[in-house]
């Protein structure tokens, strides 16, 4: 295949202008963040020098100026949130009450469709399964890893190996596990690790990703494999932060390792456990890459994020896709509120 620069020049120029605009915006923001504080600092220093030389009392920094200074830094973030989050959220909410072509209002028809269509109900059940199993299993495995490798001889190496899947993208991890689940007919050499193990024990190879609901559980394994390392790192840090005097006092009282875990370790790391479970729950609700890469949502494996993409971009049903997006947003809100309240209670306590 030949590449013609003349035919592709408009796209190349568009890409070039995009890069220039990106450099200009980011460079401008970095320049402002460097110049403006220095300018304020020089003005403050000049006033101090002038006041000291004239014998006058040192000027006090006025609060309104502090407010303007803070507003200068908050304004770009507020604008980005407005353009990138608030406006799209409002538009998506409005589209969820319209038909597929975004021309006519249909009221709550799209939301009734979500709970009346059998295939979408299957999607909701799959998503619920993901949200229940992934945080529970990944947190449990992360806690188990953290306790087992804590102060072990090869702790650094073990943690590095366990955390390594976090460095792989969801797409990359999905491709790896797709090879693990790969299938070839009987009598052929199996390239999939799982089928090879089954055949080695005298079993028959199976098309794992085609069998529902087993295929959903196998996709959940990928997410757990990735996120267990994150849970381990957070919980391991929390375990190491337990005061040594508490641990020594418990040992002097003659508690067993099992009692130490349930009565000392687990209560002490409860805030970290909540953070891990909340973070994994939100990440699981938004899962898209794994399902898209492995099964494309076929064979009853689709989840809300994947179905939202299908409805809006593949089938041209903007209203139904937007309704799924709004429903996903509604599911995330209680988790975020709980985390905010939990952090506030920890701060006040």
From TrEMBL:
Annotated ABC transmembrane type-1 domain residues: 124-341
GO BP annotations listed: transmembrane transport
CDD domains given in the database record: TM_PBP2
GO cellular component: plasma membrane
Ranges that cross the membrane: 12-33, 68-90, 128-149, 161-180, 217-239, 260-283, 322-340
Location within or outside the cell: Cell membrane
UniProt entry keywords in alphabetical sequence: Cell membrane, Membrane, Transmembrane, Transmembrane helix, Transport
Membrane disposition: Multi-pass membrane protein
Taxonomic superkingdom: Bacteria
Glycoprotein recorded as keyword: no
Keyword Glycosyltransferase: no
Record family assignment: Belongs to the binding-protein-dependent transport system permease family.
Name listed for the protein in its UniProt record: Carbohydrate ABC transporter membrane protein 1, CUT1 family
Species, as recorded: Micromonospora eburnea
């Amino acid at each position: 295949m030949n590449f013609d620069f003349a035919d592709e020049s408009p796209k190349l120029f568009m890409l070039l202008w995009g890069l220039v605009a990106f450099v200009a915006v980011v460079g401008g923001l970095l320049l402002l963040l460097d110049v403006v504080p220095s300018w304020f600092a020089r003005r403050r220093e000049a006033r101090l020098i002038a006041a000291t030389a004239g014998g006058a009392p040192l000027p006090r920094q006025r609060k309104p100026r502090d407010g303007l200074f803070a507003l200068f830094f908050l304004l770009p973030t507020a604008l980005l949130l407005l353009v990138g989050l608030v406006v799209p959220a409002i538009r998506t909410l409005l589209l969820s009450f319209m038909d597929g072509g975004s021309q006519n209002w249909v009221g709550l028809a799209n939301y009734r469709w979500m709970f009346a269509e059998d295939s979408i109900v299957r999607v909701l059940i799959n998503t619920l399964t993901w949200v229940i199993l992934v945080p529970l299993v990944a947190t449990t495995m992360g806690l188990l890893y953290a306790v087992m490798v804590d102060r072990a001889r090869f702790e650094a190496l073990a943690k590095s190996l366990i955390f390594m899947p976090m460095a792989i993208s969801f797409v990359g991890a999905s491709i790896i596990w797709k090879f693990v689940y790969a299938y070839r007919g009987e009598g052929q050499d199996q390239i999939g690790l799982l089928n090879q193990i089954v055949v080695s024990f005298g079993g028959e190879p199976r098309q794992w990703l085609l069998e529902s609901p087993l295929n959903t559980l196998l996709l959940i394994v990928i997410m757990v494999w990735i996120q267990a390392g994150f849970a381990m790192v957070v919980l391991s840090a929390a375990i190491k932060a337990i005061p040594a005097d508490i641990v020594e006092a418990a040992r002097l009282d003659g508690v067993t390792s099992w009692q130490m875990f349930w009565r000392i370790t687990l209560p002490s790391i409860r805030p970290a456990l909540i953070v891990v479970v909340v973070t994994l729950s939100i990440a699981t609700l938004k899962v898209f890459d794994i399902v898209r890469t492995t099964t494309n949502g076929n064979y009853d494996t689709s989840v809300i994020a994947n179905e939202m993409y299908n409805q809006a971009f593949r089938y041209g049903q903007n209203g139904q896709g937007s309704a799924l997006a709004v429903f996903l947003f509604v599911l995330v809100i209680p988790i975020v509120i709980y985390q905010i309240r939990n952090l506030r209670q920890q701060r006040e306590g």
